[in-house]
Structures are given as C-alpha cells and as structure tokens.
Amino acid sequence: MHTVAFQAYENLEDVVARPSSSKSMLTEYFGMNQKYPEARKLLYREFPKHYRWIAGNKKWQPRKNKRSQIGRLVHAHPAEGERYYLRVLLNHVRGATSFDDLKTVNGKACGSFREACEQLDLIEHNRTLDDCMTEAATFQMPTTLIRLFATILVFCEATQIRQLWDKHLASMSEDYRRTQSNEAALEQMVLRDIRDLLQSMGKDIKLYGLPDLVDADGSSNFDNTEVTEERQVKVDQEHLDLFSCLNNEQLAGFNDIMDHVTNQKSQIFFVDGPGGTGKTYLYKALLAKVHEVAMTKRQAVETLDRSLQDIMECSLPFGGKVVVFGGDFRQVLPVVTRGTRAQITDATLLRSYLWQKIRKIRLSCNMRARTDPWFSEYLLRIGNGTEETIGDDYVHLPEDIVIAYTDDDEPINKLIEDVFPSLHTNARSREYMSTRAILSTENEHVDDLNDKMISRFPGEEKVYHSFDYIEDDFQRPSRIMQSMQRLLVARMLERGCSYLGSLCRPRRTPHFPSSLRENRSPSA
C-alpha cells in the first residue's frame, strides 16, 4: 500500500510488475523483520534511528554512526479508511513481517486493518459514539443530531454505522414526523439531509452503508442548496464596520478592488506595505482570509493560476477571477532549503510571469506606530535597506529600546517589569493582560519566561490535566498530544469544526486561574 507513479499510457499490469513498484520502505521493513530478530523490537517510525534507507537499492542498512534520526509516518485521516488504520497499526505493532502479519491479533487473522485496530482497542468503539448520539438527543434539536451524525461518519471511526443509524433514526426524524407519518418517507427525508451534509464535506453517502436513496444522485437538489446557502451567508457586523475606519490609502485600494468585483472585471491585486500599515485591516474589510504571498514560493502561485484557468476554461490570469494578494517583501521570504540568496530571490513572486500583470496597491502610513513617527520611519529604513548597517547583517538599535544582556537573570527580570509593570495588582485585569506580550525566537526562552511569569502571579497554583485530544478537523495523534509539556499563561481557543461553513474562529483569550502549570497527560 504505497504510491506508485506512472504515465497515463502505460499498462497497469506492467507498472505493478516493476521491481521498483513492488519495493517500498514499508515492504522492506517487513523483510528486515523476517531476517533479523533485533529489528522486530522496533516500531516502523523507530526504524530510521537504527537503519538507513538506501534509495538507489531500495533497502534498509544498519547505521554505522550514532547520530539521532527521527522517523515520521505520513499523516492519514480517519476518513481515508484502511490507509488510516494501517497507520494506526504501524504506530503500535512491533516486528510485523507482512501486511497479513500486521492484521493478525493473538494468532487470529483479521479481515481488515480496521478490524485489527478494533481487536487491539486502538480506535474508538461504536459504543462511545452511540452514547454521544444518545446524550445529544436529550437536549439538541433533530437538525443538530443529523449534523452530528454526518460529522461522526466523516471524522470519527464508527464501525457499526447501520446499527447507529437504526437506533437514532427516530430522534433525527422527529421534526418531519409532524407532517409525515410514512416511515419510508421519513427515512428518505433524513437520508437526503445527511447526503447534503456529506457532499458539503466532499463525501459520498454511498460509502457508508446507509439505506439506499430513491433519488440517489440528487445533484440538482444539492446544487440549489449550495446556491441558497451562499446567498444566506451572514457577514459579521465588525467586518461591515471596518469600512468606515479605513484610512485614505486603504479606502482607495478597497474601492479599486470592489469596482472590479462588482463589474466582474478580471484583475490581480497585490497589497504592498511594511508591517503596521494596515494590510490585514484592509483584507478583513474585503475578504474572510488571505495568505501572505511574500513567503509563498512563486511556483505554488503559478500552479494555482494554471488550475483556475483549467477549471474556469478561461485563459485570463487565475481564470478571470479577482484575486487579492498581499505581503511585505521586506520581511520573511520563501524558505529554500540550503538556497543561496539568488535562489531565494528567484523563488519569490517578484520573479514570476504574473508579477507584471498584478496591480499594486501601496500602503505607507504606519497605523501601528502612528503615535511614534520616528520609529515608523526607522522601521521603514530597515525594511528598505537604507538604514546604516554594521557589516551586512546588523543594524544599530536605539539605546532606549535595548536591555543589555548578562548571564544572570537581571535582564529577563527587567524585561518582565518593563512589559508587565505592577503585575501583582493587575493580574486579573483583562485589558491589562490582553494588551501586552513578550515574544521570543526560541522555545527555550519562552519556557524560561513563562516560568518566571507564573511564579509572579498571585494565588494558589493548580495543575490542569488534558484528555490528549483536540476537537478540530486536523487529526492530531494522541502520542503527539501526550508529549506536549508547555507552560501556558493565556489559553488559545483552537477549533475549526465547520457545519456547512459555520466556523468557530480561533482567538487568544486571557484566562485567569490562580496559575497554569504543565499540560500533562493523566497517564504521566
């Protein structure tokens, strides 16, 4: 079970018969376990610590040096089915000698990777999901239950979907029973709702073993649903209010972009401005989200251009769409592994064939530092490369913003006192805590700062235990969650679960327990 690349005209039987197609890191890992007893003590992800992969010969070879190597399995989502369950087994089963051996539990061969995971108690049992639906039915509306059921199908590891359906159909169809008494019709109505929800998440209801739909394709109905939902999108009032707060430069850019959108004119825009000039503020007035293109390799942007042209069947840039990019080339450029300055520059959008077709909107008024015009000009000179430098890499910082470094704790304490003056009396002030922060480039320094900050907070220290799980659409393995032992002072709401476009936005919120210590696993 691995990726094989081939040309469209090639015969699939010939492709499969190639030696290069039959060998992979995983199959050779099985082979090593068959030959060497010491290899059977290792998990697949631990293998690179002791063996080196020779790509040319497609084989593992024992390491001669003791340099630490980290092995990592390619991510898989529960919705991918057997590929996901294969990954789960590889993370827990040592010394497997074949795919069949990997599926064997206590001497009994299982019919699938999923069944093996169930036998080893590595995945969530259907009982847990049944309890979830039962509990939700006591206080949630039927429409919410239908959404929950669809979410379980896509994002959870339900093993007995038909039993779950049969048990909770009555709760999910309760609204429809007021106008419909025919059981078969009720079932079809709920199935159509679930089909639409699954389609919105890119899934097909036929994959889940539910009863058959009478109008199985249902494409026209879903198309109408999508159009209706798009027309009913609610815009937050805070985004509507942003328009009235734009400065003259931002307003000119806003009007130019909206003119092209309203009149359906194709154009690419690039909002250029140093940090603090209000690029993000303008983005929010226009769009829900836009990425910083200055840090993106031009090849990715060019690929998007070709894809949209292909999808829209239009030769205009980005298929004739109005596209708004933004960024600041004075800051971080694309990352090119071991790249020279010329290679890094060549990877930027400035070197793309698209750059000459882009209309530039330039922002120069630093809104963030408008009360300190000298500092604003100082930052601009650094960004433009006109500030006097020491050699090629250093600039001289004003003495009044520098704390001299020494080997003791005095500089750190001085930094904390300057940023958080009178912390003891303001520790429970929401405004005080949310308007100041200390940034660092290294986690080691962050940990040290957090230790010192927490020791200064008044009150009793409490330890909070995690359940090693984040409820969002990014599946984070529990072994990664259990390894996190970071100190937290402010909590981050990190959830992106979407029900047909309804998002819970991440936000940084100050939280004031007596103090927060390590985020430890209960099993630690």
From TrEMBL:
Keyword Ligase (UniProt): no
Cofactors required: Mg(2+)
Molecular function GO terms recorded: 5'-3' DNA helicase activity; ATP binding; ATP hydrolysis activity
InterPro entries: DNA_helicase_pif1-like_DEAD, P-loop_NTPase
Entry EC no(s): 5.6.2.3
GO BP annotations, alphabetical order: DNA recombination; DNA repair; telomere maintenance
Domain DNA helicase Pif1-like DEAD-box helicase: 245-290, 291-388
Keywords of the record: ATP-binding, DNA damage, DNA recombination, DNA repair, Helicase, Hydrolase, Nucleotide-binding
Recorded superkingdom: Eukaryota
Catalytic activity: ATP + H2O = ADP + phosphate + H(+)
Family membership: Belongs to the helicase family.
Protein name: ATP-dependent DNA helicase
Originating species: Aegilops tauschii subsp. strangulata (Goatgrass)
Organism placement in taxonomy: Eukaryota, Viridiplantae, Streptophyta, Embryophyta, Tracheophyta
